[in-house]
Amino acid sequence: MAMQAEGARGPDAESGPGIGAPEDTSGLVDRRIDVAVTAAVLAFAIAVILTSGGLRQGSIPDPIGPGGWPRLLGGVLAAVAAVLIVRRLANWRGAAGHLVPGDGGKDDAPSIPSSGLRPYFLLAVGIGWLAGVSSAGFVITTFAASLASVALMRVRVWTKLFLTPFVFTVGIWALFGQVFGVRLPAGPIERFLQDILPFLR
Questions:
Q1: Higher pLDDT residue, 118 or 95?
Q2: CB distance 186 to 196 below 8 Å
Q3: 163 and 137 part of one domain
Q4: Which of 62, 65, 97, 153 has the fewest Cβ atoms within 10 angstroms?
């Protein structure tokens, strides 16, 4: 009888959801973290707009001024962040709990949870780049910042982790520093290359 009762349950009896099964939260985001991250982006955009007025005019006349592009990009970023915050707050009472469907489709990597701290780490990487580029030079600082950014995106393939930042750094340095003649901050690597390759000066 015990065997019959166990057989009557069927092979799929233990594969069902059952009581206390974990809920599928893929594609859902915590709206509190969502609003906090967007508010940080909005604050950053406002800071860019306010500080861009102190940029000095370069040697080449610029019709939009040295702070024109920062103001434009900061304004677009602030507008998008404000719209996202207003939309999230307007629907705050529309759903029970703090987990709500995120923008876009379902998460394509449900086994890798998103991190609300990652944008702040990326912001810290950008601040570190600004702090170190004048002393360490463009190549070293940009490669380190690119490497840290790729690593924060959970890339663990060594070829992508190192090759992508290297190609990006060399490409930007060659395009702007050598083709367009932009004076990028020089560090030990740039000075070494200029010593052995005089045409890079």
A1: 118
A2: no
A3: yes
A4: 97
